[in-house]
Specification:
The structure is a homodimer of 217-residue chains. Chain A is α/β, with parallel strands linked by helices. In chain A, the strands form two sheets. In chain A, strands 5-4-3-6-7-8 form a six-stranded parallel β-sheet, covered by helices on one side. A two-stranded antiparallel ribbon of chain A has the order 1-2. In chain A, strand 3, helix 5 and strand 4 form a beta-alpha-beta unit. Chains A and B meet through helix 1, helix 2, helix 5, strand 8 and helix 8 of A and helix 1, helix 2, helix 5, strand 8 and helix 8 of B.
Chain lengths: 217, 217
């Protein structure tokens, strides 16, 4: 059992904490932009985000800073810069493996593009004639050839948990470098970037807060 | 725009950070338990979780501590205690609103019970004859009577984003106190405990890590 099992808590914790705040900054700044707000001070960001102004400046300074003293931040530049930092504009391509209900929900409803990913193909063991959410669904026996031809950087795993490890190895051997993992199977240790979606952790936190009766609103 | 918009970053940040680590402790301890491990030292927990032993002791001391100096923690007691802290054993009941692909995926595949919640009914605008994952699906016109009769503490929102705010108000007025929110609609400010599942933040983090080529495994 190595210290890598829970990478979100390892020695890179500080910078990872900043990284994990950036999507929230981006959501907030894009909301301001959508509302026609052209400039925002660190104090304004602080109020909107529930952080201190010095924390905001410190976070944004980690990436070189964007503001001018006494003049604030351009919301448009800030949005573009955070998007660039997050790699959203790099246009990564991914396959989705497992077109069950969760896979269908993601293909049909989730805006992958806004987060920097394009799904270029979906795969399932069950033959599927129609596309889902505009994405072509292939049978799994076509996967290896597809990886060779299109070389996607990432994969979304929405297949049954007991198939996840074998599939991750197969994807890695086919050139995939990152996995968005919905299976709650431990995929660390394979040399892949793995981002786990741990719904049970989120639900446990909800139950805890309910037991404490801490309404936040 | 109040400081409450992003409550996970407000002045309760420290204790919230501990709370958010507890599900990971629990997953790890339950894995040890399943493997027949009866006792674990703070050093052992530290190695498995990628934290320092002093951080572990500090976290667990927030809740009164469980270990004995030089003797370690009983995995069984630790599991039971963390479950109790998280409120998992309180047996909260919830309704699920929106039986589309995501709602079906959750009802069919997700172990609500392990995280402390029982889904006692699901609702959708589309009439549905069959149950999903053993849960009865009702049409939405039955919701108010159901809330009055069964008084569930929580709701899972998997309906379209533009219906989420109205539904949250309706649920609150019907006695629901907590929302597990998959809609990416802002539901703060209603006096409810809201736990957002922000998939786009997770995916952005993945893309960032891919752009930095930081394999964790």
């Amino acid at each position: 059992m190595s210290a890598r099992r829970f990478p979100e808590m390892d020695r890179r914790e500080i910078s990872q904490a900043v990284i994990r705040r950036l999507p929230r900054y981006l959501r907030y700044v894009n909301m301001l932009l959508a509302g026609g707000v052209e400039r925002v001070s660190s104090g304004g960001l602080a109020e909107g985000l529930g952080l201190t102004a010095s924390q905001i400046r410190q976070d944004l300074n980690c990436f070189g800073g964007f503001g001018q003293q006494g003049y604030g931040y351009s919301t448009e530049k800030l949005s573009a810069s955070i998007s660039a930092i997050l790699g959203i504009e790099l246009g990564y391509r991914a396959v989705l493996i497992g077109v069950g209900n969760l896979g269908r929900a993601l293909l049909g409803k989730f805006s992958f593009g806004r987060s920097g990913l394009t799904i270029i193909g979906a795969f399932d063991i069950v033959p599927e004639l129609s596309d889902v959410g505009g994405v072509r669904v292939y049978t799994l026996d076509k996967l290896s050839a597809f990886l060779t031809e299109h070389a996607p950087e990432a994969a979304v795993l929405t297949l049954p948990a007991d198939k996840a490890l074998d599939m991750a190895v197969r994807l890695r051997d086919g050139g995939v470098r990152a996995i968005w993992n919905f299976t709650s199977t431990d995929l660390q240790g394979l040399g892949l970037v793995v981002e786990d979606v741990l719904l049970s952790d989120s639900l446990m936190t909800l139950c805890y807060r309910l037991s404490q009766r801490q309404p936040h609103g």
